[in-house]
Structure formats: C-alpha cells, structure tokens
Amino acid sequence: MAESSLFGFLDIRAAAPVLLLAAVAFYVVMEQLSYRRKKGPLPGPPLVVPFFGSIAQLIRDPPAYWDGLAAPSSGRSHRVLANVRPDAFHFIGHPFGKKLFGEHSLIYMSGEAHRELRRRIAPNFTPRALSTYAAAQQRVILAHLRSWLDRSAAEAKPVALRAPCRDMNLETSKTVFVGPYLTAAAREEFARDYNLFNVGLMAVPVDLPGFAFRRAKRAVARCAGASKARMRAGGELACLVDYWMQDTLRDRGGYRRGAQGPKLP
C-alpha cells in the first residue's frame, strides 16, 4: 500500500512539468482570445506578448507605439462630453495609465461622473485662480532667466539650456500645483521622483514600498493634507491645490448638511 502510494506520488511529480506547461499554454491562448474580443475593430496588433500585452511594445519602441496610436486617431475620440451613453467611446492611451493616474482620473471618466468632476475643478480656472498661477509662473521664469544670464556671463561661453529648461518647467509646475507646501528638500526629492516617474512610464509599474510610484502617492497625500488644513484655517489661496481644496471642502460641507449630489471621493 505504501509502495503504491509512493509510486503515485512520483508519477504526479513526473507529470507536474507537463501539467504546468499545459496550464501556461491554456492561459496564453485564453489571454489572446480575450485580447481579440476586447480589441474588436480597433487598430492594433492581432496578437500581444503573453503576460505583458502592449507594455512590451511600449518599452521596446515608445515613439513607434504612440505614433501607431496617433495615426488612426480622429478628433471625435476627444469629445468625451458628448450627449451619448458612456460606452460609446473607447479611450486609447497608456497601457497601464489607470494604475499610474488612478481609477478616478478625469481622462478615464465619462458621463455624469465626468461632468461632476469638471464642475468641481472649475474654480481652478477662474480669472482669480489664473492670475495666481500667472504670477507664480512669472516669478519662477524670471528667476531662472536671471540665473542663466549670470551663468553665461561668468563662464563667457554659450550655455546648454536643455537641462535648465527642464528644471524651470518642473519648478513652474511644482509652484503652480502645490505652491508653498514643498520645502527645498522636498522640491529636490520631487524632482528626483518626477524623473523616476517618467522612467516608470516606460517600464512595468511596481506599487510596493521603496519604489518611486509609492513615494509619489504618499507625497500627494501629504500635500493634500497640508492644503486641507490651510483652507480650513482660512489661509490665502496660493496654488491650484488650494483652489480645488477650498471647493472640495465647501462641497463636503453641503453634502453633510443634506445637499443632494454624488458622494465625493
């Protein structure tokens, strides 16, 4: 009895590689069939790399990937506010964009949820808000231009501007979006994480502790918390996050008092 059980166990171990290979092959076939069903008449390759999908093409040749998406594009794909049912459009973009930008990102929303979010971000683009951003941008740009002129005069030779222009654009964005909520050390860390984030756009995202993606999400939470405290204390509006947070707190207050409307995130 024991001998027959031992032989049975050995037979299972011998067959394990074959069973594993069969399971992998079955998964690959089902993955390709699922891809073809979801793809339908949309442009794209007839088959995809198993387990990685279109990410492999994006990593291998990013310009060709985006050129391939842009070639058949028509202006109609951007009319997400048209008065039609939500499933009338199929958004084609980054293969794992939802993981990077979030399930509730504006670019992936449609219908009533999209309209409600647009209503909520409207205060970010009032004349007063735009004047706040313009003043912040002017301060940053003028400071960088002066530093470039000083550097050029000191070195007495032409200065390469590719990296300085990138730094200026990054600082402009940081100032407009999160204004006073980043210390000097945090700004340097943000610049490093931003570069890692851009590299991550061309790689498989890893949402685990110690990776740039997780650090970026935690940084967003810290900035949002600081802005919420500032707006509740009646602080002066200084950046885009402040305008959005002020309107969000106002909406939340109305919702708690019994106002009708969709639940806010």
Concise account of the structure shown:
By secondary structure, the protein is mainly α. It contains 10 helices and no strands. It folds into 2 domains: 2-95, no CATH class; 121-256, no CATH class.
Commentary on this structure:
By secondary structure, the chain is an all-alpha fold. 64% of the residues lie in helices and 0% in strands. Helix 6 (127-155) packs antiparallel against helix 7 and helix 8 (184-200) packs across helix 9 (212-232). Its cofactor is heme.
Average pLDDT figure: 72
Q: Say how many strands there are.
A: 0
Unreliable residue stretches? 76-83, 254-265
**Percent of residues in beta strands:** under 5%
Estimated radius of gyration: 26 Å
Key terms for this structure?
single chain, mainly alpha, 265 residues, disordered C terminus, 2 domains
Strand-helix topology:
Layout: H1 2-39, H2 55-60, H3 62-70, H4 97-101, H5 111-121, H6 127-155, H7 162-178, H8 184-200, H9 212-232, H10 240-256
Helix pairs in contact: 6-7, 8-9, 9-10
Cofactor: heme
Keywords: Iron, Membrane, Metal-binding, Oxidoreductase, Transmembrane, Transmembrane helix
GO molecular function: heme binding; iron ion binding; monooxygenase activity; oxidoreductase activity, acting on paired donors, with incorporation or reduction of molecular oxygen
